[in-house]
Every structure is written in C-alpha cells, then in structure tokens.
Amino acid sequence: MCGSQKSNLPASNTQTSHFITTALFTFLTLSPSSSSCFRKPKITITNTNTMALTLSPCLPRTIHLSKPLPTSKLTKPNIIFDTPSFLGFKPVSFRNNNQIRCLAVTDLKSASSLDQSKGEGDDHKVVIGPSSEEDRIVVEYNWTEEWYPLYLTKDVPDDAPLGLTVFDQQLVLYKDGNGELHCYQDRCPHRLAKLSEGQLVDGRLECLYHGWQFEGNGKCVKIPQLPDDAKIPRSACLKTYEVKESQGVVWVWMSQTTPPVPEKLPWFENFARPGFQDTSTIHELPYDHSILLENLMDPAHIPISHDRTDWTAKREDAQPLLFEVMERTDRGFAGWWGKEKDGSMPNFLRFDAPCVLQNNRELVDKDGEKHYFTGLFLCRPTGQGKSMLIVRFGGTKRSPLAKIFPKWYFHQNASKVFEQDMGFLSSQNEVLLKEKVPTKELYLNLKSSDTWVAEYRKWMDKAGHGMPYHFGHSTISPPKLPAVVEHAPAGLVAGFSASSPAKGGIGTMHAPNLANRYFRHVIHCKGCSSVVKAFTAWKDRLSAAALVLTALAILASSKQWKAFLLVSATLCLGGVYACSTAVAMNTTNFIRVHRRL
Known about the structure:
The protein has a seven-stranded antiparallel β-sheet with strand order 15-21-20-19-18-17-16, with helices on one face. It has a six-stranded antiparallel β-sheet with strand order 5-14-13-8-7-6, with no helix packed on it. α12 (526-555) runs antiparallel to α13. The protein contains 13 helices and 23 strands. The protein is α+β, with helices and mostly antiparallel strands. A hairpin with a 5-residue loop joins β20 (370-381) and β21.
C-alpha cells in the first residue's frame, strides 16, 4: 500500500459520491502497518478539465479536484467538507455572499501526525498552533478592487514615462503638460510595444516604436503613418486606470469593471498631525510582497539581522516579545506588542488589505506633551518574486541627529537594512515556490516572536483565493504561469530621452539588476539621483584640479610654490576620496564581513 493510486472521478454527483465513499472505505480498511506510513493528506483544487483523487501513503497526498464542483443543487452559500476526524480532515467553511468558491485547503492532519503531536511535550506552549474555526472562514475578496501604492509623488519623473507593475499587470504612469497624473496599460494598441519606453512630447505620451501619441483620457491623437484624410481608428485607444494622490503617495485602482471606492483609499492620521515630519524612501526588491510584509511585521529579527546598523539595534537585546491581537477583520488585523522584560506593549501594529502595514507609538515627554511616531510600509506586489516598497518613518518630534545628517544618508542606510535581509528573504521565496505547501508545513512560528507572521498568513487563508496566487498558513494557490524575465527592461532611445534616467538606461553606472542598490533605489529617488550626479561631477572636477596642480608643482621653480601646489593637489585628492566614498555609499551593496568573497 505504499504506492499511489490515481483515478478519474465520474461527472455525475451520484457517481462522484460513490467514488469518494469507496476511497474513504479504503482508508478505513487499511491495516495498522500500512496506515502508519500515511502522513499529511492534502486537497488541491485546480482549473483543468478532470477530477482526480490521489492517495500516496509514503508521500504527502494530494486530492486534485480539477473540475468545479457542481453547485446547481446547493441551497446554502456555504461549503463544509465533513469527513471522519480520525482521518485528519477538518471542516472548512466558505463564507461568500454571492457564489461558491473552491479553494485548495491543506490544514489537514493524519492519524499518525495526531499521535505524534501528543508526544511533543510542551511544544504547544511556545509554538503557534493550527488555525481556529474563525481563521478558516473564506471571505469575499477581489485583488483588483483595491488601491495600490504606485510611487512617491515627489519622485514621479517630470519628463519621462514610468513603467510599473501590480502583480502581473504592467502600467505606465506619467505627468502631462499640466502636471496631472495619468495611468494606462503599458501597451501600445498598435503592436504591443511598451509605452514606458516612450517619451513625452508636448504633454502627450508617445510610443517610440512608430510615433503614435496619446493624451490624458487614453485617446490616440496622432499616427504619423496615416494619410492626411484618414481618421484615427476608434480602437486605437488605451486602457486607463484611475489614479489618486494622497498624503504624498500616488495610488492606483486596478479594477476595470468596478468603479473606484474612495473609502478604501488609505488615510494615515499621524501624517496629518501638526508638526509631523517624515523621511520617505522607495525600494525595488527581489522577493514576493508577502515575504516582504512578514519580514516588516517581524520585530524579533531586528537585533540580530540589523545589529549596530543604527543606534538602536543590538544583538544582545534579542529577547521574547509580548503580543496581543485586538482586532481581526476580513481586511486585516491589529494589536499591541512590546518586550517581555518591560512588561508592557507600547507599540500598535496594523495591517490593512491589500498591502499596508503601519507601526505606531505614542510617547509623553517630561512636560506632559504627547508625541506620535509612525513606521509606515506600503508594499506593492510587482510579480512573482518581486515587490516595491515605500517606507515612511516620521513623527511629531525629531531627533537632533536627524537634523545633522543629510537625507541621502538615511536613504542609503535604509538600503543597507534591506540588503542585510535580502539573502534570507530571497532564499525563503525560492523554498516556498519550490515546496508548494502552506507555511504551517515549513515554518516553526513561536508565540514569543512570530505572532504577526502567523496572523498575516492566516489572513491569506481567508482572502488569498481572490489573488493571482498566495501562500497562506493552511492554504496555497501557487502561480499558474512561470515568471517572465525581461532581458532588456530599458531601451537605448528611452535612456537618452530622459534627462534623469528613470529606468536604468544609457549612462547609468550599473546594469539593471534588482540585486544592485543603484537600480533598486537610486533611480527611483530624485534626491539620491541628484546627490550621486553632484558627487560624481565634483569628483571629476577635483580629479582634474589635482592633476593640473601636480603638473604646475613639477614646473614651479620656487620651493614655496611647489609646497603650496602639492598641498592643494593633496586636498583635491582628499576631496576626490570623499566624493567617491559618498557615491559608493549610495550605490554599493552591503556585504556582511564574515562572508568570504
């Protein structure tokens, strides 16, 4: 019985029920020796044209229900899989107002695993347990009916279109002649060329393949190849997306069928408070947005992974944490957390769908004045194994040190933080895609450090069915198609067309690569781009000056002039070193000193 039997299910309900009954009877009549080799069975529902039940005693089992379950005779909007509990199956309810959804459910335990769990001692005291019945309710969710953070308003280029993605949907964002933002599908209706590789001509977006031009509402207003007496075809228009600017961030509504819902547009109270100031950065990262989110809601890793990166993280401060979940909704969760040794939970964390995470804290100074601090993380999914993050740290009271250091210093330090985690998170992303099992099968989440991570993955169990793909605590829906890798994300002409390259074209110091700090951050940040250009220009000038001064010192006959010119050349070389260091700080990845290169 340690083989695998696979059969096709009949189409009719009666035959299907008979087949499942027969399969369960096979489970029931297994001898003790054969049943002991069963592990955790799984149910997977896909969208092919057949239904099959696979029983593999020596490997993780998968029941493929490939054809949609017949629903014509159902009278209630709930599906409950009710099977004998000693087989390890648990009931799963689907809450849906309009229709029945089928979902891959893998929160299952076999009899052998249940027996094994009894001998695990006190593990249940420190390890987060299985999902509750409330966690297993599937809610109505559609990923397109959400606002997604596209870009920081201050960093949107004034003179070039910007190519962006939300999941696998490619978008182009640009400012017209009046400074108004417009967003289209990044595809020319002529021959599918990327409009983000184009240019702006008199406030219009021009495709650089054949010169077609489009204006605000997506209407094509110029086709150079048309005869003078011909009209532009009506079909030569673009698919448009609604964009809104709010509190310094550009948001896009992804649905083409449902009108935008203003109430869903995030609003952050602390950012509207008098005197609130923030430092905002944007980063493109080489791992999935769900991996990024759980990393950002994991305070336990900070003392270890970011030891001495700033003035607060120290590895000797690694310790148990306290968590209290105060709110669970269809759109997220919230709660308090703090250090166990302090006996208090002063930090309030909130996650809101689809990808907004904030960590807030209130402090009262010696004069009784209350101050507000926020760490805001806006995580946009940009495709399989990719994400873009907008980070905003701020408060109503700033540290004196924050006034001393320039903004670019904090930007490069933020890049360093993400580089410290990049190796861990990229490998984590690879394992999830390879294993294709829920996180509860892979993670060992501790109650004293990983509560928010477990809460997030359990929320994915509820809403993940409405996303292109997801990895939940107990359920998964892997990507249906492999990721598309673009080998030329920016064209030659597109690079020349932008005075400040927005996409890594000609003239950038590094090839497009998400593992490279320049491409991940600098090209998306106007401030850091200007700083790198300024330091590079000064380095070139000082190098030339040092060369001239050295030549003059050689030619000078007076010792005093020789000394003066050589000292001046030395100072110029010092300036060259300082400028080179500043450029390197903004463009060079952090590498841990214990690693061999």
